[in-house]
Design a protein that fits this description.
Layout (H helix, E strand, L loop, with lengths): L4 H27 L7 H22 L3 E5 L3 E3 L3 E12 L1 H5 L6 E8 L2 E9 L4 E6 L3 E4 L2 E2 L12 E4 L9 H12 L4 E3 L4 H9 L5 E4 L4 H13 L3 E3 L7 H4 L2 E4 L1 H11 L4
Parallel strand pairs: 1-3, 9-10, 9-11
Antiparallel strand pairs: 1-2, 3-4, 4-5, 5-6, 6-7, 7-8, 11-13, 12-13
Helix pairs in contact: 1-2, 5-6
Bound molecules: D-MYO-inositol-1-phosphate and calcium ion (CA) (2 copies).
D-MYO-inositol-1-phosphate binds next to strand 3.
Length: about 260
């Protein structure tokens, strides 16, 4: 598997940030037992990881623009290239000592995602994709699962929580999907949900109220693994609508229909 120079930079950066998160995660596990909990510590870990990513990418490509979860948008002199970064996806898992979180870095060129890296330091699983070059888990080429009937599938989702998302609408969607599938999973890290679909571990996934940094790298991974990606209306406006539905051609289509079934 030959990686381009820019993908190599992204991989080295994600691993460096991931190592920093892994060190902090050890401390978070110790802090679970304290009454105050590890809240402040987690927020520092998040910022530390983002700082590492910003510094490394700025050094490698000084002109590119940034969209980062914590620092927001930073315009570079090159507005054609934009990094889209979630330094710690799965914060709630991280906070609770659940080893299911990741660094997510995507590169957009003229509005198109052209490279993506998702790194889970707890499992040392590195997902990479380049437009037209396929998707990989470490050195293994990825392909979405081939199941064609919902009844055989495991589907990932994100459950809205206090103050987030449309709870009533979500319950309708969940009721529709749970009636037709063999299992539903809630990983707690959207980037890993998408990576798991690319890896054929989940047959499909849907979620609402996401941000571009939750999905950018994962969208490319799913596409490059042969999967279909859209918003809930079947369009390509995931960043604007904030929702996403993915799967192989059959499961993606079936999910779109099932989600919209009337009550
Ligand atoms: C969250 C995770 C989670 C999803 C939330 C996201 P964060 O990102 O991806 O799985 O359900 O909608 O906000 O806050 O942990 O970076
Ligand atoms: Ca996130
Ligand atoms: Ca985050």
């Amino acid at each position: 598997m030959a990686r381009s120079a820019v993908l190599n930079v992204m991989v080295q950066t994600a691993i460096k940030a991931g190592r920093s998160l892994a060190r902090d995660f050890g401390e978070v596990q110790n802090l679970q037992v304290s009454l105050k909990g590890p809240g402040d510590y987690v927020s520092q870990a998040d910022h530390r990881a983002e700082k590492i990513i910003h510094t490394e990418l700025l050094r490698a490509r000084p002109d590119y623009s940034f969209l980062m979860e914590e620092a927001g948008a930073i315009e570079g002199t090159d507005s054609q290239h934009r990094w889209i970064i979630d330094p710690l996806d799965g914060t709630t898992n991280f906070l609770h000592g659940i080893p299911m979180f990741a660094v997510s870095i995507a590169l957009e060129r003229q509005g198109q995602i052209v490279a993506g890296v998702i790194y889970n330091p707890s499992t040392d699983e590195l997902y990479t994709a380049e437009r037209g070059g396929g998707a990989f888990l470490n050195d293994r080429r990825l392909r979405v699962a081939a199941r064609t009937k919902l009844v055989d599938t495991v589907i990932g989702t994100g459950v809205p929580n206090i103050g987030r998302g449309h709870h009533g609408q979500y319950l309708v969607e969940l009721r529709n999907v749970m009636a037709e599938v063999s299992g539903i999973r809630r990983m707690g890290a959207a980037s890993l949900d998408l990576a798991f679909v690319a890896a054929g571990r989940q047959d499909g996934y849907w979620e609402d109220a996401l941000q571009p940094w939750d999905m950018a790298a994962g969208i490319l991974l799913v596409r490059e693994a042969g999967g279909f990606v859209s918003d809930k209306d079947g369009g390509q406006n995931m960043f604007d609508t904030k929702n996403i539905v993915v799967g192989n051609e059959h499961i993606h289509g079936a999910l779109l229909k099932t989600l919209k079934k009337p009550v």
